[in-house]
Structure formats: structure tokens, C-alpha cells
Amino acid sequence: MRGFALLGICLVNAMVIAGTWSLAEGAGAAPWDRTAVWLVTALVTTKFYLLFAFLFGHSFVFQEAGARRDGVPFARRHARRLLGLFLLGLAHALLLYPGDILMSYAVLGLVLFAVRRADPRALLGEHYRGERLVDSHADDAPWN
């Protein structure tokens, strides 16, 4: 399944890297080009990004269970995997494509590790309180 998600992401990134994406969004683009970009975005881009993100979180559960089964500390195993992911993302961003997401996944993996034992209802409550806090100060923003 992860390979399928990666194939879809490669398809989308190939269009972006090749520059065909920006050609189809310009003012002089043909209607069928704009339609093709819309279809790829609606049917491919958003779906494969969502699938890849889901699989990232889902594999976290499997990795934790595997570490528990093997009697190995999960923190060290997880930190090693995230470091590898970050370095792979850094190499990819520097050598191939600056729009890399792997470094973001590595950083968010640290956040996921920190809240892995938290009560989901408590996390949702914190999110709701944070959202209300941001909304209450939106009128004070410098751009308003």
C-alpha cells in the first residue's frame, strides 16, 4: 500500500518538477489543460497525500507494537527511523526537489511520539481551546 501511495506522489511531483503544472495554470492555458490539472489535483494529489499521511501514522502503531514484541526500547528505534527519514528528506530537498515533505514527517513524528499516550479527547479539547484562542485574537492581527 505504501508503494502505491509513493507511486501516486511521484506522479504528482513529476508534473511539478517537469514544469507542466505551471504551464496549465497560466492565463493562456487551454481549457483541457486546466481541466487535466484540476482532475489530477482532485483525483490524485489530495488522495495520495492523505493516504501517505495515514500510512505514516498507521506504521507508527505497528513499529511500537514490534518494539514491544521484540523487547526493544521503542524510543531509540523511533528516533533512529526519524533521523533516517529526516536525512533522506534533506538529501532529496537539496539534490532533487525543494518541495520535500519527508523532513516535515520526521519532525511531526517527534510530536506524535510525545503525545502517543495522551487521551484523544484531551487532545481534541486542547485543539478546540487553541482554536478559540486564535479566533479570539484574530481581530488583533497586524494584517487587519
From TrEMBL:
<keyword id="KW-0472">Membrane</keyword>
<protein>
    <submittedName>
        <fullName>Uncharacterized protein</fullName>
    </submittedName>
</protein>
<keyword id="KW-0812">Transmembrane</keyword>
<dbReference type="InterPro" id="IPR052529">
    <property type="entry name" value="Bact_Transport_Assoc"/>
</dbReference>
<feature type="transmembrane region" description="Helical">
    <location>
        <begin position="82"/>
        <end position="115"/>
    </location>
</feature>
<keyword id="KW-1133">Transmembrane helix</keyword>
<feature type="transmembrane region" description="Helical">
    <location>
        <begin position="36"/>
        <end position="61"/>
    </location>
</feature>
